[in-house]
Each structure stands twice: as structure tokens, then as C-alpha cells.
Amino acid sequence: MEITFKISRYDPSRDQEPRLQTFRVEAGPEERILDCLNRIRWEQDGSLAFRSSCGHGVCGSDAMRINGRCGLACQKLVKDFPGGQVSLEPLPTFKVLKDLIVDLGPFLERIRQVKPFLRTEEPAPDKERPQSQEDSRKLNEVIRCILCACCSASCPAMGENPSFLGPAPLVWAFRTVFDSRDRTTLERLRELDGPHGAWGCQNYFECTRVCPKSIPVTKSINLLKREIEKHLR
Q1: What CATH number has the domain bearing residue 165?
Q2: How far is CA 198 from the centre of its chain?
Q3: Helix (H, G, I), strand (E, B) or coil at 162
Q4: Do residues 67 and 112 both lie within one domain?
Q5: CA atoms of 180 and 8, how far apart (whole Å)
Q6: Do 129 and 97 reside in the same domain of the chain?
Q7: Cα torsion for 88, 92, 96, 98, to the nearest 10°?
Q8: What is the CA radius of gyration of the chain?
Q9: Are residues 6 and 120 in the same domain?
Q10: I need a labelling partner for 38 at 20 to 30 A (CA). Which of 13, 60, 115, 125 fits?
Q11: pTM of the predicted model as reported, rounded to 2 decimal places
């Protein structure tokens, strides 16, 4: 079947604003949108810019807005778009570097702000730090985050409050706050207790809807709020 792609093109070195370019691709129903993008770049326009790596929904690098909703091009199949019309745009709210590639630097800096690693004054053990299966299960859902930025790009609260940490950083904060091996829980909660931290979330649930790994993002943020109220209020 023939699929019509309308792809946002923008090169800041020469374009004043983005434009849409139309491409037509023959593809089977089980082929991925990423397969079609590769075919366009290999066979029609080698200047088309987009990120991709693993191609299996693990690295998160091919995140973009597909027919108005953020997702991974490697997870969306041709059969998911029965009308044969697909629009591809870069992730919203981010600076566009070229075509479908955005600058994720500020997003990753927000991840760094929550210090997404274990903090403890105890000396490093000879082997791994032990954790019970019960404690480990508390983190089973949030550790699926692949830093694709779909959630932050879709979050209306990010537009309302540019200083808001955003959904993904709060998911990574959840990982450490509820990790039984970390010894700085209260300090972490204090850092999240504010309008730019956990309370910046307005429960729009867009982050949860678009997450390609089905992480209950909004629920996780609300559990952080509950933990703040429990220990600091």
C-alpha cells in the first residue's frame, strides 16, 4: 500500500521557519514508520534528518510527534494508520536542530538535577548492595524509562511553567526516593517540594498516555507528592 508522509523540514542555517514536505512510500502493513523513514532517506532524500539507533523501542532516540501524538517511530506500524496519511513533526517544546531532531540538552540537564544515582555515606561493599524483592518491586515500573522525552514534550504543565522539572525527571526521582538502598530520602523530598518540582504536575495525564513503555507516570508523581506530605508537612 502507498503511504503519504508529510514531514516537517527545517534547517536553521538556511530556513526562516519549518515547512512540510510530502513523500510517498510503498510499505506493507507490518512495516514500521522508522522503516519508511529509512527508505525515504535512502531512496528519495538523503538530507532528511532524524535520530534512530536500536530500532526496537529500547533506546528512545526516534521519538517524534506522529499524527499529533508523541511516540517512537520504531513502535508505530503502517497498519496503525489505515488512512495512509502520516504526519511527522519534531517533539514539541524543544529547540529544533534539524528536521525531526531536537536539542535534548535541557531535558537531560533536568534529569541530572534530581541526582539519579544512589547516595549513601556507607562504604561501597565488595559486591552489590542487597535489596529485597519486595523493595525491588516498588521500582519495577519506573525503571522502564528510556529517556525518550515523549512525556515531557507532551506535558501541558511544561508550557505553563517552563521551570517545572517535568515528568521524566520526576520518574527518575521516584527511582531514588523509593529505593531502600538510598540514604538521602528526606533531602531528595525537600528538593522536590515546590512549584517547580512535584507540585508542578497538574495531573493532565498526557505523560502517561504517550509513554512508550507504559509507565504510570502521573501515578508515580502523585506518590511522590504523598511522600512529601507524609514526611515534610
Answers
A1: 1.10.1060.10
A2: 17
A3: coil
A4: no
A5: 45
A6: no
A7: -10
A8: 20
A9: no
A10: 13
A11: 0.93
